[in-house]
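Handout, section 4.2: multi-component inputs.
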Amino acid sequence: MSIPIQSSSYSNSSFLMNPSNIGNGINQDSSWNLVVKKGIRRLWSRTSITFGEPLYNLINSLFEVYKECSEPDWDGYGASPISEEAYGEAFKIIDSLPSGINMPEITCEPTGEIAFEWNRGKGRVFVVSVGGKHKINYAGIFGDNKTHGSEYFEEFLPPIVVENLRRLYSY
Amino acid sequence: MNDLNKSDKLGRYIYSKHHYRPSNNTVRHTAFMPPPDRQLSIFIISGLNEEDIWSIGENLRNLKLLGRADIITNHVYKIELNIQVDNNPPRHANIINWPKENSAIKLKAMELAQNAILQLK
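Output:
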């Protein structure tokens, strides 16, 4: 599965390779931003040691999404902006992805949530989203079968989300 | 234009790159997720030539028009959504009857997206 990475002044390698630069361009004074930075640094070290480029690209992609969707009406239809809380929670999703799982694509929803999409072609897609409210919303299409729901989210992916991811890749 | 046939073509104009997948030129569910008032803006594009169809989208927003997602009316009805034509502006309509739960909305948007055809500008 491809992960779209667009080149920009913020997303080049030198920017992300140095964790002390992470967060530049975002609200620097926010205490929440410190939490996000800490999470990025933890993920950055994990990326370099165990997961390599795919996870690195995913973090980069999340940053791009945050930049592009953090203003109101980013879609021309009155979309809500992505909040710092949603951004921080999206890092937690990345941090809690089970090892061996395919990397998702990241996008933003008009509700202000950040969505992770695993797309295996028509009729096989699973999406989870977070909005910084300790809640995961998920929906999936598995051929003729469909599912959706929401779960509390703090540190770990809810089992039903993991189960649906395995379901997506099981056939 | 008030009466719709099941085979009428609807267009959802796209102004954000987060509404489609450039990797395989398909529509993402985000293109069909409604705003908080749960009225998804679309246009009835049956019977128009391509030039006129693009013209509507270009004059609609102060954003660069990137493309549109085309879908047949019947795909909307099949998942128990409805279409309310208001002709304001002409040919404008809203997809309505969305559920309240975010996850249920997401699923319906995913179903619409997988039946939509992406047309890039």
